[in-house]
Amino acid sequence: MPELPEVEVVRAGLQPVVAGAVVTGVDVLDHRSLKRHRGPSDDFVDRLVGGTIDAAVRRGKFLWFPFEPAAPHEQPLALVAHLGMSGQVLLRSRDAEPDRLMRIRLDVESPAHGPVRLAFVDQRIFGSMALDDTVPTLDGRPAGFSGARLLGSPAPAGGATSDVESAADETAADENAAAWVRRVPQQVSHIARDPLDPAFDENRVLTRLLARRTGVKRALLDQGLLSGVGNIYADESLWAARVHPDQPTESFSRARARVLLAEVRVVLLKALGEGGTSFDAQYVNVNGQSGYFSHSLNAYGQQGRPCPRCGAEIVREAFMNRSSHFCPRCQRVR
Asked: How confident is the model at residue 236 (pLDDT cuts 50, 70, 90)?
């Protein structure tokens, strides 16, 4: 399933195209892709056509588009895109051949790019799109990541202004002016912030983590504690921090838990810089290109190979209907 880096790559590719774009046409080719939409497909189409997309926003693995319908509505809406196991949002020209597994087609008029088609492609149909009401964020902070320079990412050399810095300036202005910035879709409101979110409250997360009575990997995968981390990046972060997946959370000191969160950020940022992890054609950016973080994996999927740090053989063990990958020498339960 796509994790934070893969979804952020999609969000970043869509943002320059969808910001301020007017929806000119919608075709629902497979009604199963509207399973999370409250209402029939006609309602989905009628409310989208003529409306304006404000931005592309992400919290953890969840992607949405704040949306202003053409007809007056009681509260701001959001077009939520659940990618599921194999969902993709691809940018296409209007005259492109239709993607074989396209489930929903949105034609938009982009202020920056003119007429563009957004193709929601999903092989296994675990993903979906839905229009959803939004609610205010509990902490009053921006609901998700919408373009500011990511925490820890390097500033441009020579003092030049980069696209990400320009996006940061625009996001700061949005935070002061746009109503959608501090509103989150109801379907996403229960999801915790992710470690790259500027509003991520590390001290609160550390306190909650240390109060758990569970294995540390289970805690990292709990999207109510922190979001965006799935099986791949949990294994990689635990390897980097030399922590066994089953290490009890109550055994951690606050300092050691802080080191682990720091490693989570490093791994996520490195994966993001390499376009995410692509094992097959399902995990691609908006132009259909694969990421290459799979070549940088130290633990996940490396069973039977030597640990890059100590040379011991990486092992794979069953874990919550999935698998954990770790080094039995470097990552002992302590």
From this structure: very high
* pLDDT tens digits, 95-134: 998 888 999 999 999 999 999 999 999 998 999 999 999 9
Q: What is the CA radius of gyration of the chain?
A: 20
- Average pLDDT (262-285) is 75
Q: pLDDT band for position 290 (50/70/90)?
A: low
**Buried b / exposed e along 306-318 (16+ C-beta atoms within 10 A):** ebeeeeeebbbee
The 10s digit of each residue's pLDDT in 139-180 is 999 999 998 655 545 443 333 333 344 444 444 544 455 889
- Cα dist from 154 to 148, 199, 251, whole Å: 13, 19, 34
Instruction: Kindly compute the dihedral angle of the four CA atoms of residues 234, 239, 243, 246, in this order, to the nearest 10 degrees.
Output: 50
* DSSP, res 331: S
List residues with catalytic annotation.
Answer: 2-3, 61, 322
Q: For domain 4-185, is the CATH number 3.40.50.2300?
A: no
Q: Virtual CA dihedral for 250, 255, 260, 265, nearest 10 degrees? A: 140
DSSP lists the bridge partners of residue 90 as: 119
HSE (side-chain half, CA atoms, 13 Å) at 9? 29
Strands 22-28 and 77-82: unpaired
Rounded distance, CA 179 to CA 87, Å? 29
d(CA 121, CA 195): 28
Domain 202-326 has CATH 3.40.50.170: no
pLDDT digits (tens, 9 = 90+) for 8-65: 999 999 999 999 999 999 999 999 999 999 999 999 999 999 999 999 999 999 999 9
* Structural domain spans, the chain: 4-185, 202-326
State both tokens at 322.
Answer: 């999935």
Token readout for 188 is 């996403």
Q: Of 53, 166, 49, 61, whose CA–CA distance to 105 is shortest?
A: 49
- Are 4-185 and 202-326 equal in CATH topology? no
